[in-house]
Structure formats: C-alpha cells, structure tokens
C-alpha cells in the first residue's frame, strides 16, 4: 500500500457515493483529493494537537484557494454546540459560498463537529474527512453521522451528512498515542462482533500483531472494517434498520462516557466495556452463550482494552443516561444484543430490571 496505489473502498449512495482512500502519504497526495473541492473556499477544521503535526501537509494542497483553519481545543468535551457556532463564524469570516468545502483533519471529535458544521452552513456544503486516528479511519469518517454532544448526553444533536471523500493517511498513525490506538481497535472488534465471525476469528489470530501495531495487520484491519461499514451504510444510510447494529455496546458505552464526563473513558474504551455488558445482558436474557462472552472478553484484553466499569459509577445514573439513547422508542429501551459472535440483533422493550442487574453485577461483582 503506498500513495500511488491506496486501497479504495466506495460507499455506494447513488449520486452521493464517495471513495474512502486508505494508504500511505495520502495527505500529501494533493492531486488526488484536491479534485474533490468544487469552489474557491475551504475551511480546515482541526485541533491544537493535530494541526501542528499535519496541517502544513494539507495546506500545501490548498494553494490558490481562499482558505483558513479553525482549531478546536483537544478533547471530547469540545464536541459542543458552542464550537459549531465558532466554526460557522469562521465560514462567515471566510466569505464561504455554497460551493465551499470543510476539511476535517483529526479524530472523530473533529470529524463529527466539522461534518455537522458543514451540514448546517447554508443548509449543507461539501466536506472531506481526513481522519488521523485509528478510530476515525475505521468508523467515524465513514457513513455520514455528524453531530455534537449536549450536557444531557452523547451525540444528541446531529445530522446525516455524507462526506465527498475520506482520505485516510495511515502514516498519521505513527504519532497516535497507544491508548488512542487501542480505543480504535474496539470499533474494529465491534464490526466483527456484529456480523462477521470470520473477521472476529482473524482478529483473534492477529491480536498479538495488532497489539504490537504491525503495519500489515493494521492496514488489513482498517480495510476490512471500512468495507464492512460501507456495506451497512449503503444498505441503510439513515438507520431505519440494519445500521443500528453498528451501535453494539454504545447504549452502555455512551452512558459510561457521559457519566465520567469524558475524562474517564475514551469513546472506544466505553464501547469495549459496553460490548461486554451487552454480551452479558444477551446471556442473561437467554439469547447467547457464556462462551461467546468469554471469547469477546479475551480478545478485548489481548488488545489492551478495558473490560470493567470504572470505579465510582452508579447503576441508576447509568440507566437514566441510557433512557436518552436515540434508539429507544415509546419510552422503552432498545439495545443491540447478540445471539453469537457475528450475529447481533436489535432488541426492543428490554426490561430495565435486567439492565440494572447487569450493571449492578459489573459495578460490584460477586
Ligand atoms: N460519526 C460516527 O459514525 C462516529 C463513529 C465512532 C465514533 N464517533 C465519535 O468519535 C469521537 C472519538 O473519536 P477519536 O477516538 O478519534 O477521538 P479524538 O477525536 O478525541 O482523538 C483522539 C486523540 O488523539 C489525538 N490525535 C488525533 N490524531 C492524532 C495523530 N495522528 N497523532 C497524535 N495525536 C492524534 C487527538 O488530538 C485526541 O487527543 C467520539 O466523539 C465519538 O462519539 C463518531
Ligand atoms: O455509524 C454508525 O451508525 C454508528 O453507530 C457508529 C458508532 O461507532 C458511532 O459511535 C456513532 O457516532 C454512534 O452514533 P449514535 O447514533 O449512537 O449517536
Ligand atoms: Zn462508536
């Protein structure tokens, strides 16, 4: 895999189809992504950690355009409505017209917020995802879910707004801290756990290589996960059905992230713990076998991911946060559970008592 021959995976959505390019040196491959910019204006949204590392590489490709950058402070807490307003003010300052393009350079926080800002400006302009975390490459940059958090919960405000292209330059992963890298692996495991048992078995077989950040294993894991997600999104762009499966572990995980005020668990870490809680709930409801839970836990541990609810969390508070999850209907919890590895399903009307039992057990195990 190199700059001249990246892996290309198309997200097929008719006239709004777009390529996901995965390879080395892609931020500097200006000829490739510059063709995606239609107008005269571009706003690069990044953050104070990523911009010093990679903004210059992107800036060289914007020569001749009216462009500027807007940098967020680092962290999930900055995926906020207030920052959307600031990005929109930056677009206004640039004089951005409807053919302008927002470029999201960073992890999922930058991508979600920049994408939502692009969806709002003049009722929707182009944006390009340039993911620089593993999590953003395998998940958040693909599929067009954009949005921000509210104090009441994660991603409560947002829009489906697809990017024009995704430029995943895997060279950027060399500077990614190990904890962030591992958090990205959780979303890879999730894809396999939902609907691809052979991929799950491949992850088990390559867990040591992935934990050691072996280049070939990482590149293959990225491509396999993106191919899987692109297929789901193409079949169900706005989550009327199948796409909800991509939320495995998220009802619990989002509650854990929010309860910790984004200072305790990273998103991917919340998903790791959340998947395990979903597996235990599946077991409790008689849907799945304990062996599958154990297999999931072993893989997460091998990849260096947390598997326990952090100390000090309260089951009732977590349940209250779960009640605001977007999948719920008619005041009832709707969760993604599984029958076995690779066979997840949407389960409505889950009794709160069962969820609480799983939470209590996890918080104070016997
Ligand atoms: N839209 C979706 O479909 C979707 C999917 C999954 C997650 N998400 C969202 O994505 C967010 C999590 O994304 P994330 O895990 O990328 O977190 P993040 O955006 O906070 O990035 C993680 C950390 O890595 C730093 N960083 C980024 N790239 C770097 C690099 N190359 N080198 C060094 N440091 C780098 C960032 O500054 C940050 O400190 C959450 O808000 C989550 O809700 C959205
Ligand atoms: O793309 C999707 O669909 C997902 O659910 C991917 C998730 O990994 C991601 O965290 C997403 O942001 C969650 O969305 P939400 O609808 O639960 O807010
Ligand atoms: Zn996620």
Automatic annotation (TrEMBL):
NCBIfam families: aroB. It comes from the Bacteria. This is 3-dehydroquinate synthase. NAD(+) binds at residues 74-79, 108-112, 132-133, 145, 154, 172-175. Catalyzes the conversion of 3-deoxy-D-arabino-heptulosonate 7-phosphate (DAHP) to dehydroquinate (DHQ). Residues 184-328 form the 3-dehydroquinate synthase C-terminal domain. It catalyses: 7-phospho-2-dehydro-3-deoxy-D-arabino-heptonate = 3-dehydroquinate + phosphate.
